[in-house]
Amino acid sequence: MVNREPMQNTGRLSSFMTPSARRILFGETANTAIENDLEHACYVDRAHLVMLAERGIVDAAHAVQLLQGIDELEESDFSALRGKPAPRGLYLLYESYLMERLGAHIGGVLQTARSRNDLNATVLMLRLRRPYRELVRQSLRLQAVLLRRARQYSAVTMPAYTHYQAALPVSYGHYLAGIAAALDRDIAALFEAGACLKRCSLGAGAVGGTSLPIDPVRTASLLGFDESPLNSIDAVASRDVVIRLLSAATVMGVTLSRLANDFLLWTTSEFGFILLPDDLVGSSSMMPQKRNPFVLEHVLGRSAAPLGGFVAAATAMHGTPFSNSIAVGTEAVSHIWKNLQSIIEAVTLARLVIDGAAPQAEEMIRRATEGFTCATELANRLMKEGGVAFRAAHHTVGAIVRDAIERGESLDRAAGPQLEAAGYTVSLAGLDPAAVAAASPFGGGPAVESINASVAVLKKRWQGYCDRIRVDEKKWQTARANLSEAISNLAAAREARN
Length: 498
Known about the structure:
The protein has helices at 19-26, 31-54, 60-75, 90-102, 104-107, 116-152, 172-194, 216-222, 232-237, 240-266, 294-317, 326-332, 336-356, 361-370, 375-386, 390-407, 411-421, 433-438, 448-497, and strands at residues 157-162, 165-171, 274-275, 358-359. By secondary structure, it is mainly alpha-helical. The chain has 3 domains: 1-112, Orthogonal Bundle (Fumarase C, Chain B, domain 1); 117-366 and 447-463, Up-down Bundle (Fumarase C, Chain A, domain 2); 375-431, no CATH class.
């Protein structure tokens, strides 16, 4: 039975925190913290105990008994701790249970050469692996859909817009390849931020390391990290992984929001460029004719969440002492979980939209034609074939467009007589949006060969990203297997001695 007042007398303190403050900081019971943190803390404890025993810092027999006690507690889904008050936090409730269960001489060795400071920093890194991996996976799935649809629709001509006005002929596939190019940088930034997850803080202690001859490299390896603490102050003071991940997520959210904004316009009847399937739209509770693309509004809303989290976390960290800090390690960190989940959901919803969206080719080409998107190409031809400086050609074509609008004529029909009257011989063949887009491969233009080339580059990078996350996952799995083997060896050695 767990003492309801675990570690009330710590030697320096002899009473609980006041109940109101305790409820705010630790909750009524330990349940929420158990769900979030204790699995990872037990993983750290196992690696730490193996290292302590291997280094001869604690008795191997005691370490084995403690490891068995942790196993039993975890196998019961921490039932002995659930519903219990944690007046000084979950970890001390957990440690107090082990001391009562196994005796203080065994349970009491768990924090040897360790503090909650380096423990909490390490648990954060372990806990972040799951949402980080999920965000990477969902981003790669979105990228795969973008690249596949970019190739599929590389010849579906549509107008590109500047200032919300039809500008130049491109293709729907070209647009999607453009989003894919931006997302490629977003994914690269996510991996760069995720590099922080390779560093382990365990061994830094409270802030000044320890005089005990620990092996931080060993524990880091058993936990699947690449690096042990370089500096004990930095190891417990820094939670920059939080703001780096939120920063990368914020930029990715900007990309998603711009995509969602375009699609919200293009799904309107005024545009009619995109048709979403019934399973990605909603109806109105009052207006029976409505097909509301509300999924896109959720993409807009959720993609903005990391920005708020970044500002809140960075503000909490700003101006704090460079040492262990509640403002940094607890308050700032609290903003990452919900906001990472929001961007994961935004990425997932965006993928569903891109995968299900059907471009309306006839409406797209009609608007590209009526928007005089081939005017720049006519100016280019006037320069190349008529020997006119581009600025003068620009002025001449602008006047032709104005007259064509007034007369209700197409660009090529209006241009012929006026250019002939001015003494210019300029080819008007292929002066339609599809032909102009197809003839524009330079500068990453919308020609099919240009789109395919860009998709090939992005696909190669995508494969590299897939390989990188698989390497990380394999490393984490291998570390757990190595820890299990080390624990078995420790137990076998104890049996052999007995």
